Each structure stands twice: as C-alpha cells, then as structure tokens.
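Dear Dr. L.,

I hope this message finds you well. Following up on our conversation about the binding site, I have prepared a predicted three-dimensional model of the protein together with iron/sulfur cluster. For your records, I am including the exact sequence and ligand specification that went into the calculation, followed by the structure tokens. Please feel free to forward this to your student if that is useful.
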Amino acid sequence: DTLGELEARVSVCRACPRLVAWREDVARDKRASFADQPYWGRPIAGWGAEDPRVLIVGLAPAANGGNRTGRIFTGDRSGDWLFASLHRVGLATQPTSVHAGDGQRLLDARMVAAVRCAPPLNKPTTAERDTCAPWLDAELALVADSVRTVVALGSFGWSAALAAFRRLGWEVPRPAPRFGHGAEAVIGSPGHEVALLGCYHPSQQNTFTGKLTEPMIDEVLGRAAAAARI
Ligand code: SF4
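The resulting structure of the complex is given below.
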C-alpha cells in the first residue's frame, strides 16, 4: 500500500457497526446545518507530511469536526486549539483548520487518530479500538522511519501509540510508561530512538477548565518542533 491506497481503503471501512451507524446518523441529522458544504460521515485517514518528523496521535474524529470535514482535527474546537499551537511553534502554515480546502499544511508533521470513526461521547469501546488498530499499524508502518517525536494527545492516544509501536516491533519500555502532560518516554530501536511526549488532549473539557493552557500545549509541541529541526 501507499498512503493514498491506504486512505482509499480506510475511507470505506464498515467494521464497527455502532460507529458506522453513529457517523452516518450524525451526517444525516446535521447535514442540513451545514447545507453549503459536503458532509463526510466516513472514516478519517491520517493527514500531513508523508515523511513526518513529528507524529501526533489523537483519539478519534469529532462528530461535527473531522466526521464533517473529512480531515482530522478540522472544523472543531479541539482542532482550533491544536492548530493555533502548531502554527505558533512552526509546525503548521496557518493558525486555523476550517475545511479540507483551506490551504492549511502541516510542516514536518502528520496527524493520525487511534480510532478512525467518530464515536458517541468521544468514547470508543475497547473492541472498537482493537478493531481499528490495524489501520493505525498500517499507517505507522508507512511513515515511522522518518519520525523523531511522537506526541500523544491524552492517555488514550498514549496507550494506543505505545501498543502500535510495540506491534511494529519497536522497543517500548516495560512496564509501560505512564501518561501525563509533559511526560516523556524513549521508544524505538538503537540508532532510531524516538521521544514519545504526552500532552493533555485539547478537548473543550480540558481547555474550558484551564487544565490545558496555551503555554502548556505550546511547551510540548515546541519540544517536538525543536527536535524536528535538529
Ligand atoms: Fe473501520 Fe476503524 Fe471506523 Fe471501525 S473505527 S469502522 S475499524 S475505520
């Protein structure tokens, strides 16, 4: 597979009945609210550089964000926060990510979701996470060689990244390192050591309450950006 072929294959995946029903129900119900735009309502592929130095691992698309626009972290509040920070640290060309044709580009970075369909309440089940894991594995296998830093957004992304890299054959410390904001673990292999950085997820739950502030997210993404430029 190339990344393009992988993207085409994942976009028609229907392996999780609950998530297929949800993504399509939301698309049907909400399409009228966004009548001037196409509404995606399908799985979300990874997006960004094909040979990324920074890999950002999120949870799953938002019902009216990625599920609507067809691009990860695009058109939702979490994405507003994430892209503003990526722009401040030099990893995105624009401070906003509004729709798939807005000209936004990631610089040396790629984003992937651990689960590729929008789940109700942003909570995939363990079975859904495991069913979707082969898509994450396939994408990592295509892009991992160039990666220097992995940024996991939230504990779900952290665990999913550790598990996926272990399946890829990378050395991952045991017991598994614990997630925290600013946590860092080294994974990879001799000669290709990669820093895994933890960052609180830029969900409204975290940004509205002040659990995640702009200086906090800039600090972690800035570390990733600095490592990418070495
Ligand atoms: Fe397929 Fe993943 Fe969507 Fe499940 S969550 S239907 S495995 S793309």
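In brief: The longest helix spans residues 126-143.

With kind regards,
A. P.
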